[in-house]
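Q: Joint fold for the lines below.
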Amino acid sequence: MNEKIYRQAMENFTPAPTLRERTARAVEEAGTPRPRTRPLRAALLAACLCLALVGTAFAATAVYRLAVRPYEEEHWGDAFTGYHIYGRPIAHALEEFTQEFQDDFAAWDHPSILFNQKFDTWEQAKAYLGDSIPLVWHSMDGVIFTNEYRVSAKYEMYGDGKITYVNIYNAAKLSNGLTYTTDAYIYTPDYSGDILSGRGWPLDWDNFQAEILDSYPMANGCVAEVVMQSVDYEEGAAHDLIGSFMKDGVLYEVDLYGHIQSPLDEAGLETLLHQILDSFE
Amino acid sequence: MADTALAPPIKEGGLPMDGAPKAALGFEAAYDAYGPMVYRLAMVYLGCRADAEDVTQEAFLRLLRRAPAFADGEHEKRWLLRVAVNLCRDQLRGFWRRRAVELEPGLPVRNPESLGLAEAIVALPEQYKGPIHLHYCEGYSVAETGEILKLGQSAVKMRLKRGRELLRKEMEGQP
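A: Joint structure:
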């Protein structure tokens, strides 16, 4: 196939003359378009906003955004693709956590790469980390079961053993049978780079694909970046919808799993993810 | 010790948001320049005139309501294409779209000899349509296609390759 043959086929798709009039009418009925902001004015406005934001927690929430970018890399001779989540977290030094947390980490004899503690409730997990760490959680309706809240810390095994981030993880099941997990990541000054999260898979996985969906403006003022990962099986497709957002410099990720027999289709899963995201304070 | 640096600026499809903008096209000029392009893309994704017209109308409404300041006409064109692709995908995700897309029967055509290819293109799985159309119809490079569709270059190449294979099999009548 070449461009000429393709374009000949596409000439069959010519809009009717009436579409022009119809669209013009719709535009006219929609009213006067809003004036577009010139880049220089936008830059000045952004600069003023920056000055006004210092020390203002609400403004920090409004300003922090994540960026989702696809990538391709080669590892060990194989090609991989996926996406990275970029952002600029607020770093919290170890001393900002509770003394109990610091003592527990100091006493950890590093049998594995992760330092782990488990709690029955969100309130217990939050109290363990301390009031200096600004954390929120969801309050989703219809949750019929949650497992324990796991607090773990990732440290550099071959570095000097310092913590790079602290993670809180929990899984929940809804009354419709669907499950989702929630992760919160609190970064320390020893975390380097602006790639905070992401997923990857071999480029030649024919039955796997990912799609960056529309960003979602959450009820709490944050903006979530949403990615849908899909796997095609013989019996049908399964979908993972991952919503990532940052609040007060902490990264949150909600992973909603739509299995093959999911009661919701892709649009329904996206709506449900939005509902979960909107239940965050 | 807190780092209050702002998040990195979000780029629209990888294109820089700085640069002196040119005066925005009014509706008439914008539709004449890009209307048929948007409609063709929507027909490839949706196969149905009514749906393609809806997408075209909505894309221009968004252009007039929500568009950013464009650096140039090409920037505006790519923005419209991405909006149109997203609108088409929204339509395809609806409950009533679970079955495969087919070209609307009885469509008046200009080139009957190429109608078979047009049908085969519309019947392609969704993930191949954008790369095939943007590369072969709109003439975008692999890199440019990737920027518009938010895909890496290797993914675009792979989807072009597989899309071509599917089209060839379909045109040759192979299963």
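Q: Anything notable?
A: Chain A touches chain B through 65 residues (CB under 8 Å). Chain A has one domain: 67-278.
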